[in-house]
Amino acid sequence: MSALGARLFEFKNTTSVANSFPCILSLVSLFYTTEQNMNRTCLLARISLLMLSFLLASVAQAADGKKRLDVFFKGLKTMRAEFVQTLVDAEQRVKEESEGVLLLSRPGRFRLDYSKPYSQLYVADGTRIWMYDKDLEQVTVRPQDEALGSTPAMLLSGSEPLERNFTLQELGDHEGYTWVDLKPKQKDATFAYIRLALEGDVIRAMEMVDNFGQMTRLFFHTVTRNPKVEAEAFRFTPPPGVDVVGE
Question: Do 214 and 128 belong together in one domain?
Fold first, then answer.
């Protein structure tokens, strides 16, 4: 992962207008120091234009994240992405790191194939979700709606507008990424919020914090939009000899 990816999730919302007023005041002080002989009316006009430009830029930036999300999801039928996933506890200690490949076929179908550190497979076929642990030789199957609800997986693979299930808040730009915060409207959701990081019109990262303060971070790379994906990728047949739970 790049240095940017490693630092990506330290982000906090530091782009608000209120937090930036010290910078504006410093610029005002600089104007007075370097242009003491300037006509005061002209100086104030410049300062006003400077502040107005800053405020307008902040508003434009705030609107950018939602627009980029709309562009990303508009016309999205399939997606393939390699990812690195990190599990962090409430004390910010890394508990687990894993890697894998994500396949989407909207609406409602996805495949998560973990390769490191353990081989695990999750397949959602639109009706059920299959969870296969190769080391344990066990398959767990559950109704998809019951298992996923408003989770990040359904966020990416679902077809409903985001505003139906989430309250969206702009977090501005950081390290070249545009961030958007999504809080679930569902009262009994198993997570507190999801944050998405966009590079241009592509989702590059996602972090989800559960109700216990534990965070799951995903960093996507080699993202391919609307590749040809065989329907067979979203079908699962339990291998012979494995235990099947839930069917």
Answer: yes
Question: Which of 41, 64, 87 marks a domain boundary?
Answer: 64
| Structural domain containing residue 52 | 20-64
Q: Which pLDDT tens digits describe the chain residue by residue (247 residues)?
A: 444 444 454 444 443 333 333 333 333 333 333 444 444 444 444 443 333 333 333 333 445 788 888 888 888 899 999 999 999 998 899 999 999 999 999 888 999 999 988 899 999 998 999 999 999 999 999 998 777 765 666 677 776 778 888 888 988 888 888 999 999 888 878 788 999 999 888 889 999 998 889 999 999 988 999 999 999 999 999 999 999 998 6
**HEC profile of the chain:** CCHHHHHHHHCCCCCCHHHHHHHHHHHHHHHHHHCCCCCHHHHHHHHHHHHHHHHHHHHHHHHHHHHHHHHHHCCCCEEEEEEEEEEECCCCCEEEEEEEEEEEECCCEEEEEEEECCCEEEEEECCEEEEEECCCCEEEEEEHHHHHCCCHHHHHHCCCCHHHHEEEEEEEEECCEEEEEEEECCCCCCEEEEEEEEECCEEEEEEEEECCCCEEEEEEEEEEECCCCCHHHHCCCCCCCCEEECC
User: Has this prediction a pTM greater than 0.85?
Assistant: no
